[in-house]
Amino acid sequence: MAKEFKRSVCPYDCPDTCGLLVEVEEGKALRVKGDPEHPFTRGFLCPKMHHYEKTVHSPLRLTSPLLRTGPKGMGHFRPISWKEAIAYIATRWQKIIKQYGAEAILPYSYAGTMGLVQRNSGHPFFHRLGASRLDRTICAPAKDAGWKAVMGQTATPHPAEVKDSDLVILWGINAVATNIHFLPLVKEAQKKGARVWLIETYKTHTAAHADQVFLVRPGTDGALALGLMHLLVKENLINQEFLNKHVQGFDKFKEEILSSFTPTKASQLTGLSEQTIYAMARTFGRSRAPFIRLGAGLSRYGNGAMSTRLIVCLPALVGAYEKKGGGCFPGTFTAEAFPLQEFLHEDFLGKKTRLINMNQLGEALNNLADPPVQSLYVYHSNPAAVAPDQNQVLKSLGREDLFTIVHERFLTDTALYADLVLPATSSLEHPDLYRAYGSYCIQLAQAIIPPVGESKANWDVFSLLAEALGFAEPFFKQTSTEVISFLLSLPAPFRQGIDTDALMAGRPVEIPVSPIAKHTYRTPSGKIEILNPSENYPLPCYLPPYHGEFPLRLMTAPSLFALNSSFRERDELRQREKGMFLLMHPQDAAARALRDEDRVWAYNRLGEVKFTLRITPRVPPGVVVAEGIWWLAHCPGPRSVNALTSSRLTDQGRGSTFYDNTVEVRLA
Ligand code: SF4
């Protein structure tokens, strides 16, 4: 068969959702490149996906179901058939259900694949089973909560609006690592004369794209927003007409910030000088259309929702939300593109079962609550590496009486603890529907190569399990393709006006956002709600981050060469990263008599993790940074970074607090 390029989509948890062109020959992916026709990603890929074919055809791919033959965590397995595997799960689960009830079974998944069908395949199945439900809040629900508190369901601008801004603020986003396709748009604004600021906790690779970098103490972004708003009011840089017409509660808020949040206070909290805060406020207030690209990082502190809320208020004071090129862009909300509820089938739940927060997996499995979790089914996720409080998670995965099934492409840290490992397809081997969260693009991807080995897609495995457990609903007998057709057949006003033929042909398609008018604020009052009476704090205010007992604040930041724990199967990407480093300021290193390249332990009450030390002025004093999540097999010590992160939750949204931890460091 001749070589040909076929269209696909990057399935990983990244706002860009790149369009791919995959060269295929005789059922193998030979190479992958960006699709130049994609309106947002425009033909280039990040380094992670550049050789996706090496992931797809990696010699480490799992190719048959595996049954554990040795102690948990040791990775001793023997191959078995799919028939045996499905029958084994059904028998074990029937026993568990008989003894403890179905709530003793817990699914665990997040966003290993972002395709709507494969990502969500387990929902209808586990609802029908009556299993415990997982509160899927590991990413940035606090950011959503903060946005919604002020803006409700208001649509966010088109990301390309940034080109018309004269002041672009990248706030808490390392775009080079997590939103690289936004940067060419920023560049266009810069060429037209816009200034670009980066507000961060350390100098990330994105700093090279900014005209000015402002480093704030971790968790004090809300204090900076308040200090700036105080000065905008004091220096009469606000847009009173806009505030009168479109903002609820500004007068009360104004009194509050004038009396209680001075630039001196903002300076003391953030570490920025008062002079800098004055200069920032004046530039912001005098800009025609300031545009904030808000990242998810700052919402992973205990005060994440409140910090987001304060930042979202900032453009309202100067009326930036009405200006072309102005406002705040936290990402796009494209959920309305497909009525997913019809697929998730909450109606299959006989009664509402208990909800277990995924950030507290260790506690949930170790506290033998009524009923104790007796079986864990993990799919496209790797909680042994990515969940907080790794020591507690690993201890729980080691429970001999916990029947663990892991459906994966690779023998991850979690799969090593499984009783049964099921081989999963990659995104090139199954069909799916995608919607981006950094642009308004949607796309349909077909399977373009056959499954590697005996691997199966999530949907297909849940169909087999449904059959084995005697579920009579015809719903579970559909194929993935039929489910996709069903989703596409449901009316969705949000998709109105799209090029349906292009979508069906697998081309990237953009939802037209021009009809979303300025001044259309989808909140209960129809206004931007600085004052929101339904919130615990009706007016936004400063909430401090976690006050840890150790002297250094630990930032668990994204890596350029991995996405959470994905891509760690690739030797060449790990080599480019060079190792698992802890970044530390020279002053902090000198105080501890540490030298560059030393092996060090970072520790706190939860655990200790060995790193190679990198001394750099890129991080400010009092902060240490660990980029990326490593598989245990590649770590310098027995644990990876999440042995240091806590399962505490955010102020709103029950989200993770990965950035809100403290440590001390000593020589190993
Ligand atoms: S990880 Fe993000 S930037 Fe990289 S190819 Fe996928 S969607 Fe594009």
Describe the model.
With 668 residues, the protein is an alpha/beta fold. It is 28% helix and 19% strand. The chain is globular, with a radius of gyration of 25 Å. It starts with a strand and ends with a strand. It binds iron/sulfur cluster.
Question: How are the SSEs ordered, and which strands pair?
Answer:
Layout: E1 4-9, E2 19-25, E3 28-34, H1 52-56, E4 66-68, E5 77-79, H2 82-100, E6 105-109, H3 116-120, H4 122-129, E7 133-135, H5 141-151, E8 167-171, H6 175-178, H7 183-191, E9 195-200, E10 212-215, H8 221-234, H9 240-246, E11 247-248, H10 250-260, H11 263-270, H12 274-286, E12 290-294, H13 304-317, E13 327-329, H14 341-344, E14 355-357, H15 361-366, E15 375-379, H16 383-386, H17 390-397, E16 403-408, E17 420-423, E18 432-435, E19 441-445, H18 458-468, H19 480-489, H20 500-504, E20 509-510, E21 528-529, E22 552-557, H21 571-577, E23 581-584, H22 586-591, E24 599-603, E25 608-615, E26 623-627, E27 661-667
Parallel strand pairs: 6-15, 7-14, 8-9, 8-12, 9-10, 11-21, 12-13, 15-16, 16-17, 22-26, 23-25
Antiparallel strand pairs: 1-2, 2-3, 4-5, 4-17, 18-19, 19-20, 22-27, 23-26, 24-25, 24-27
Bound molecules: iron/sulfur cluster.
